[in-house]
Write a structure and sequence with these properties.
The protein has helices spanning 43-51, 57-62, 108-117, 123-137, 154-158, and strands spanning 5-11, 14-20, 25-29, 32-35, 82-83, 95-99, 145-151, 168-174. By secondary structure, it is of the alpha+beta class. The strands form two sheets. The chain has a five-stranded antiparallel sheet, covered by helices on one side. A three-stranded antiparallel sheet has the order 1-2-5, with no helix packed on it.
């Protein structure tokens, strides 16, 4: 058994992260979605195989290997570890999305659209919209999904304050229960003091 890890830190210099596993970290800036951290599942390997013509994109998309991890925290040596090469400077209007792999039920295009549709909303509304989009897919055996949204406020970026004071943060989770089929969309955190 093991676990994935995605940790982010916000400082006056910008956003930094460290990750192992397949939990995604995205930046949505000016309507463009970019994955910031590496994916340590077999999805990138299968995509590369498709690009080399060793299998089709359709085969890669349905391969039973696609969600298998190539790296996780298991108490031993870590074969793969991703860390930000330097702090990423943030801008007003940026949206940072940290999530579990259940968020990847949605395509990058669907994630970008959900964030763009709520660009003026607060972090909690964006998180709720994303999880509702995950629920709407109605994928059998849907993995649990947790989403944390960070919306740096222009004032905290321009002032280069030594902390994240005023940044809007919200974490929501969708928990599947075979027994109940329940979804919890209540916020787990709110605006930082």
């Amino acid at each position: 058994m093991g676990t994935t890890l995605l940790a982010v830190a916000l400082s006056p210099a910008g956003l930094e992260w460290i990750s192992i596993g397949d939990s995604p970290l995205y930046l949505c800036r000016a309507g463009e979605l970019s994955r910031l951290n590496a994916d340590h599942s077999f999805r990138p390997v299968l995509r590369e195989m498709a690009e080399r013509g060793e299998l089709t994109l359709e085969q890669a998309a349905v391969s039973s290997l696609r969600n298998r991890l190539r790296a996780a925290l298991i108490g031993g040596e870590m074969a793969l570890l991703d860390a930000s090469p330097a702090p990423l400077a943030l801008r007003g209007g940026d949206v940072i999305l940290a999530g579990t792999d259940g968020v990847q039920t949605l395509s990058d295009e669907a994630i970008a659209a959900a964030v763009a549709n709520f660009a003026e909303a607060d972090a909690a509304e964006i998180a709720t919209a994303l999880l509702r989009a995950v629920l709407a897919v109605e994928k059998p055996k849907q993995d649990n999904a947790t989403v944390t949204i960070l919306k740096p406020l222009a004032a905290s970026i321009s002032s280069q304050a030594p902390d994240a004071t005023g940044d809007a943060v919200a974490t929501h989770r969708r928990h599947s229960s075979a027994r109940e089929g329940a979804a919890d969309l209540a916020p787990q955190a709110s605006t930082l003091p």
